[in-house]
Amino acid sequence: MNIKKTIFFLANICVCLAVTAQDAATIERKLIELNKNTKALFHNKSISQDSIAKTSIKFKEAISTYANNFPQMLEYSFPDLTAEGDIKIKTSKNKKFRIYSWDTWLGTSGMYFDGIYQYTSGQKSGAKAYNKNKLFYEVYQVNRGKDTIYLGAYYIRTTPEKASQGIKAFKINKNGSLNDSLKIFKTPAGLKNEMVIDFDIATLDDANGEQIIKYDEGLKTVYIPVVMAKGVISSTFKAYKLMNGNFVLISK
C-alpha cells in the first residue's frame, strides 16, 4: 500500500511539473509576440513614439499580470524570450525574487529601460513595477541572520557616452509584500537603499564590460569602483561589508 501511495504521489508531481512548464512556455510565446510588435514599430520610421509607447505598455502589463498570477514563472528561465539580449531576467538562488528588465525602444539619446519585480511568499506571487530606466544585470542573495536580503545590480545608459551603475536592496516582508526601499548601506550621509556611480563609458575596462559593481558572496562584501574627475573609472574600489545588519564601508 505504501508503495502504491508513493507511486501515485510521484505521478501527481510529474503531472504538476508538466502543466507548470506548459503554462510558462505559453506565457513566453505571448511575451515574445508582444516584444516583436514593439521592435517592429521602432524600426518603422513612420510610426510615432506614442504608438511605440502603447505597445511597450502592453508588454509591461502582460508581464505584471502573469507575474502576479503565476508564481511558477520564477522556476522558468524564459530562454527564447531572453535570447536576443534586449530583455534581461535575473533570479535569486532561492527562486523567490526576480527582476525582469528590458529596452522599451523609447530612448532618444540613449537606451530607456523598464521593468517588473516578481516575488513570492509561500504559494502567493506578487509583482511590482518600476520605471527608473534601470537594466538589472544581476541579483544577489544575502543571508542576514534570519532575514534574506536581495541586491540588484543595474546600469543606466543616459547618453551614448555617459552611464550610471548602482546596486539596490530588497526584502520580502513577512506579510508577503516587497520592500524595495530597504536602507542597508551605511554612508556618512546616513543609511541608503542604493549606491550609484556615474561614469564615462569610454573608460570601462573591456575585461569587466559594463558590470563593474560586484558582490562577493563569501565575504559578504559589495565592491564599487572609485570614479575620478571627468567620469574616469579608477582601478580602486570602495568595499562595503555586511556588519551588524548593514553594509559598512571598510576600505576606500
What is the arithmetic mean of pLDDT? 84
Count of beta strands: 15
Helix content class: 25-40%
Radius of gyration, in Å, reads: 20 Å
Instruction: Give the overall silhouette.
Output: globular
Overview of this protein structure:
The chain is α+β, with helices and mostly antiparallel strands and 252 residues long. The chain has a domain at 134-252. Helix content is 25%, strand content 40%. The chain contains two helices and 15 strands. The protein has helices at 2-43, 49-69, and strands at residues 87-91, 97-103, 113-121, 124-130, 135-144, 147-157, 162-172, 178-179, 185-187, 190-192, 194-200, 214-216, 221-227, 233-243, 246-251. It has a six-stranded mixed sheet, with no helix packed on it. Strands 5, 6, 7, 8 and 11 form a five-stranded antiparallel sheet that branches. Strands 1-2-3-4 form a four-stranded antiparallel sheet, covered by helices on one side. It is globular. The model is unreliable at 4-19 (pLDDT under 50).
Task: Lay out the secondary structure.
Layout lengths: L1 H42 L5 H21 L17 E5 L5 E7 L9 E9 L2 E7 L4 E10 L2 E11 L4 E11 L5 E2 L5 E3 L2 E3 L1 E7 L13 E3 L4 E7 L5 E11 L2 E6 L1
Parallel strand pairs: 9-15
Antiparallel strand pairs: 1-2, 2-3, 3-4, 5-6, 6-7, 7-8, 7-11, 9-10, 12-13, 13-14, 14-15
